[in-house]
Amino acid sequence: MEPRGSRVAFGGPGIEPRWSHSNKDGVGTAYSADSHLWFTLWRGIVTEVYFPRIDRPQLRDLEFLVTDGETFFQEEKRQLTTTTVRPADHALAYRVTAADPEGRYRIHKSVITDPHLPCLLLNTRLELLKPDLQHQLRLFVLAAPHLDGGGWGNDAMVINVLGQSVLVAERNGVALALATNRPFVRTSVGYVGASDGWTDLSLHRTLNWEFDRAPNGNVALTGEIPVHSKTEFTLGLAFGESIPAALTCLFQSLSTPFEAHHRRFVEQWNRPVMREVPLGKTAHDGGRLYRASRSILLAHEDKVYPGAFIASLSIPWGASKNDEDRGGYHLVWTRDMVHTATALLASGDHDAPLRALVYLSTRQRADGGFPQNFWVDGTPYWQGMQLDEVALPILLAWRLQQAHALREFDPYPMVRRATRFLIERGPVTQEDRWEEVGGYSPSTLAACIAGLTVAAHFARARSDSATATFIQEYADFLESHVERWTVTTRGTLVPGTTRHYVRIRPASVDEPVPDEGPDLGWVHLSNLPPGSPQDFPAHEIVDGGFLDLVRYGIRKADDSLILDSVDVVDRILRVETPFGPAWHRFNHDGYGERDDGSPYTTWGVGRAWPLLTGERGHYELARGHDPDPYLRAMERFATSTDHLSEQVWDTNDRPSQHLEPGRPTEAAMPLVWAHSEYVTLLRSTTDGKVFDRLPEVAARYLESPVPRPPREVWEFNRQPRSVEPDATLRVIAGQPFRLHASDDAWLTVSDIESTQTGLGLHFVDLAALWEAGRAWSFTFYWTLSDRWEGRDYLVTATERPIPP
Fold this sequence. Notes:
Layout: E1 2-3, E2 26-29, E3 38-42, E4 45-50, E5 59-67, E6 73-75, H1 76-79, E7 81-85, E8 94-99, E9 105-113, E10 119-128, E11 138-145, E12 154-161, E13 164-171, E14 174-180, E15 187-191, H2 197-204, E16 213-217, E17 219-225, E18 231-240, H3 243-254, H4 258-269, H5 288-299, H6 334-346, H7 351-363, H8 388-402, H9 412-425, E19 439-440, H10 442-461, H11 465-486, E20 487-488, E21 500-501, E22 505-506, E23 522-524, E24 535-537, H12 547-551, H13 560-573, E25 574-577, E26 580-583, H14 610-622, H15 628-637, H16 672-687, H17 695-703, E27 711-714, E28 722-723, E29 728-733, E30 737-742, E31 750-753, E32 755-756, E33 762-766, E34 775-782, E35 787-788, E36 793-797
């Protein structure tokens, strides 16, 4: 290995780097855990490639350039007509055909990874449709490294290895090497927009510049591939922690025939089929989307950190994102991850969901919570707190236990910590599932009620009946307050319907006094156009999150309030597309392309979400209706390579921007949450019952409900000023205390020792006051630190009006 020469490219550091488009035609990796490489495709070209972890993009794109040396220059992604197919049922291998619109040639590619090494392999055949072009046509490969997740600061070089030129790049301890099994004719490196191969070829129709080095910039690598009457070759793009490591991987991969790699790649992906529940018979496409979805879900798992499933191998609106935006969707969201694990469990896989549970348990924070999202090593990215992301791992643990799939793993330490977090930090969530607004959310409350109910069963199985009762009573407290917190009686969206669920009742986790009364407050939405209203009455903002109350078994599907709320959501959020119905997340959503088709950048217009079609299918099944129309719609939303997108376009065609109704936008694709919802709906439809419905939850709240005395809960993060006269007031704190309390304005006083629970929480129950106007006054004596709280608190018995 030696440098080819010392010619340094001009024009550094190049133009500002950007990522690639997000609506992928393909994502892939080897099924083997040995190959630490993931790739993506868009319009037939390779886009982001991830190494050595699934959250580390290392490449912007890789494509072919074609010229005849004199009259034309064509770029694969812009000028050629491409088709991408996934020929195998289970393997994430792709076949791409890129055709010259004038019928002169076609490029055929088969794209896989080495089954055991971090090397991307493109077996390529150039088909000459006009033989006289054989001596004129010239073929080049262009690669744009974004090593260590960034376009700036890359070093590119041409080096000589085994008598041929190899293109390499490195940055921050990551390197790549690019070559073919047919040595390059010419090679060069340069700065993007100034001295790179694309600029050279577009200007000169030939590679005039042959630079050896392009240090510290936004760089591109270019190699010319020899053209013959039957041009066929295998291109390898390998990665390593150094240039020697990448080179070793590259030549090891290229030394094995592509056909052998491909055969092994497909064989590996056929292995998980042995654990597959045959749900394809229920589908309307012969099971094609089911098989693809299962593989896509499995492909989104990291291999350095087994069990870490990310949300999507994509960067939404990536072509408008620079180095400053390091996130994208290649991060772990606990919510998306649990949906993935649940779908895989529904498909018959017990191994991957258990890996997910073990991984999540090792990433739980000391306080019992989980970061809003995080890199696969557990480092938080965004800093929000979402209660449903704490409750959902408890549900996953319970489902695995019920499936006898926990093996030797004990989830109870995780469950216990998460349960404490939910009780100590709830019921107000800093953010709901749409990650923008804090308060009382129907969908979040549903997850918490269900999670706490099964947590109580976990505790009871440990012979801790007292803690189990404490947990269940808190779940009952939440369940009895759902309508009080999240239902408006002043609805104006649909004439004649004044009472319905809202998206969220705003409240702050930092404000200890909760909102009370019929006025639900105002919702602030921050991703709307500058100058437009951003604050709306909470009773005028709706979403379908309340359907989780039905999904888990907390409310009946035909409950009149549910039915009225469904009608409101349909009138406000439902969108009819050529492929079936879809729904917006909520009204006034700004997360999506703008009306002119330009990308979402801090503001836009929220588009329709296919996963919400799946959620609606689950609701219709729970109601006793046919879910098939929604199942069929999701299948029709899928692309030709069986990908489901985060959002689909929902207004007039914009052909120049490739936007048409019901087809993917530039949001994330594939979105694992959408694929998870499809697989779970397919299982639910096959079984004739909602897979996510928890019998333990339904038994308590629907099937055999028993009268429960009313209860109000007082905690330092939530300090109600009033209580119904017949309700017990439970006071909870995180350490032992003695409650100094009076119900007659301190004329008489009781000192009550707190009761300890197995969660490390302590509580005192104050008896019902029984008549309006009376009040509990109390303060705390902290027994461990031998000190008084130094402040009195007051809770007054007040009659509440009965909602209509």
